[in-house]
C-alpha cells in the first residue's frame, strides 16, 4: 500500500478535479516534487506563468479510495492506497493527446523529456499504428496542435 500525507492527498484530489491545476503559492515545493518523482503528477511549465500540474492515471487510481479517507483523516495520519504501476511516457502522451484542447509538440517534449522527432515518432508509431488511435493535427493560433479523435458512437 502506498501512503499519502493529508496534504499530498488533498493536492492530488485538487489536481484530479481541475485539468492543468495550478497549485496555490503556499504549497510546499517538496510536496509537489515528491509526487512528480513518484509518478503521480506531471508538471507542464507555463509559457507566461506558473507551471500547471496534471494528475496521472496511476494517481487517479490511487486516490480513488484515498480521497474519502483523507477527508476525515488526522493531519499526522497518512491515507493508505493500493500501489499502482507507474505510467509509461507513451501512456502520458496518450493522456495529453486525449485532452479536448489537444497538446503541442513543445508541451509533449517538456512532459516526456524527448526531442521533437521522438515525440512525432511515438505519435506515428506507438500511438497511431501500435494502439490504433486516430491522431489529428491542426494549426490553432499559429501553433500545431495534436489530439486523439474520440469516436462519438462509443
From TrEMBL:
Highest taxon above the source species: Bacteria
InterPro entries with a match to the protein in the record: DUF3489 (IPR021880)
Name by which UniProt lists this protein: DUF3489 domain-containing protein
Native organism: Phenylobacterium glaciei
